[in-house]
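Lab meeting, item 3. Inverse folding demo.
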């Protein structure tokens, strides 16, 4: 068992890496900026959200290898000339490119600003772009030390950038000289050595930043409410786990006896009636049933027995004693759990019925009957345990189902769970949340399959894991 478990865990590593690589590809396939067909305020809001997303995943860096430390003065000057000769969109593209270059563009910008032979417009543009590039150089400096040092550097940059270029030669020369003096005092930061160049090439890339975020479980902040994603995700995951666990538990507790009953009564009128009722429930859409239950049992007439939503009462809930809290929570869970339970009854009971009928035709069951065992002993001691294996295998999908949540049910009953969280993230184009939920859902899928294999080994003694391989004795 231990060897088999270790092998499975080792397989998880390349599997998770491939999943992370696929998600990384999706992140990099996001368009340059989110579009908005709404009013300008919302357009600006989405652009700011994308800026946060771009900074968190390092989308301004090269994908796998970073050779920006090789940027020359001539490269920066060529970008400035392109911005002057192009239109507004071309200038914006150049500004974004220089911002991505960060500290590697600072020497080139200072050289262009101080070149007396260069065009005045080019020198003014360099002086205009220098403050942002210098600020980014301070922010991205891994060896910057204390926050106080960064604040002092930023304040100095702001003083150097005070006032837009006025166009007169004297002012231009004064500011260019101030920037040259600033660069001379910090020359070592802008002339990296061999080891630093190697670190920049390998680790200042999108993929390296992405992996660092994953290993530290840093999924960033939500673009919708600017809150850290992981605490919010764990809180909502607990709510979804509660309602999904109760519905799955009830589904199995009801489906297995119903499947056994259907197998025992095979071909009889009672079995046909039971199948019709279960499939009628399965055919009833959950959103339709939830709406009817709210209409007739919650907010409307003739009955007002259950709350219309949420997981507990709002006012006074925290002051209640523990038994009263549990009762209040159970009162709120009746309708959503019922809506999630009835749909799975038909499928699970049918699985149990067909699996039990197949086992009842096996040789060991005929041998048990020939030995004179009672039918109840044959059914429950020998047949049912083997018939449960397909149902146990289905438990491998439980954790992903819990994570994704019942989207429609959570929205209808206003439950703050994973389903509504993902749905809102898609509507708001909250990239960080979507990527985080995709990754964690993949992890839970692998864990669910592992637990299903362990449960099958515990239920069926013929399955051997002790030898380090899956098999039948």
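The presenter then showed the designed sequence:
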């Amino acid at each position: 068992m231990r060897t088999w478990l270790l092998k499975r865990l080792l397989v998880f590593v390349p599997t998770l890496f491939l999943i992370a690589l696929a998600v990384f590809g999706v992140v990099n396939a996001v368009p340059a900026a989110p579009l908005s067909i709404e009013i300008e305020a919302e357009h600006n809001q989405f652009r700011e959200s994308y800026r946060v997303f771009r900074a968190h995943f390092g989308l301004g860096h090269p994908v796998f290898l970073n050779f920006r430390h090789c940027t020359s003065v001539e490269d920066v000057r060529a970008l400035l000339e392109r911005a002057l000769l192009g239109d507004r969109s071309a200038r914006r593209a150049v500004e974004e490119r220089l911002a991505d270059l960060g500290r590697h563009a600072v020497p080139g910008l200072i050289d262009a600003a101080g070149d007396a032979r260069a065009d005045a417009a080019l020198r003014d543009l360099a002086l205009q772009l220098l403050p942002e590039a210098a600020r980014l150089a301070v922010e991205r400096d891994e060896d910057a030390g204390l926050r106080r040092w960064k604040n002092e550097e930023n304040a100095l940059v702001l003083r150097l950038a005070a006032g837009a270029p006025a166009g007169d030669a004297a002012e231009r020369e004064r500011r260019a000289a101030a920037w040259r003096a600033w660069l001379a005092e910090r020359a070592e930061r802008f002339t990296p050595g061999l080891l630093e160049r190697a670190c920049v090439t390998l680790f200042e890339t999108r993929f390296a930043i992405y992996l660092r975020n994953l290993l530290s479980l840093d999924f960033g902040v939500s673009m919708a409410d600017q809150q850290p994603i992981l605490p919010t995700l764990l809180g909502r995951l607990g709510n979804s786990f509660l309602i999904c666990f109760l519905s799955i538990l009830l589904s199995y507790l009801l489906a297995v006896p119903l499947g056994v009953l259907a197998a025992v009564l095979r071909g009889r009128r009672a079995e046909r009636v039971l199948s019709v009722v279960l499939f009628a429930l399965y055919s009833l859409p959950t959103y339709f049933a939830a709406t009817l239950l709210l209409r007739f049992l919650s907010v409307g007439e003739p009955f007002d027995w259950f709350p219309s939503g949420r997981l507990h009462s709002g006012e006074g809930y925290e002051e209640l004693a523990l038994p009263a809290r549990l009762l209040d929570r159970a009162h709120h869970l009746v309708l959503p759990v019922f809506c999630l339970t009835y749909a799975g009854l038909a499928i699970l009971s049918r699985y149990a019925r067909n699996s039990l009928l197949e086992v009842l035709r096996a040789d060991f069951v005929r041998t048990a009957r020939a030995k004179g065992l009672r039918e109840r002993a044959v059914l429950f001691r020998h047949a049912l345990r083997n018939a449960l294996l397909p149902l146990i295998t289905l438990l491998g999908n439980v954790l992903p189902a819990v994570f994704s949540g019942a989207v429609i049910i959570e929205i209808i009953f206003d439950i703050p769970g994973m389903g509504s969280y993902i749905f809102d993230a898609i509507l708001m184009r909250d990239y960080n949340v979507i990527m985080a939920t995709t990754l964690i859902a993949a992890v839970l899928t692998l864990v669910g399959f592992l637990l299903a294999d362990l449960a099958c080994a515990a239920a069926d003694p013929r399955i051997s894991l002790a030898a380090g391989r899956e098999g039948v004795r």
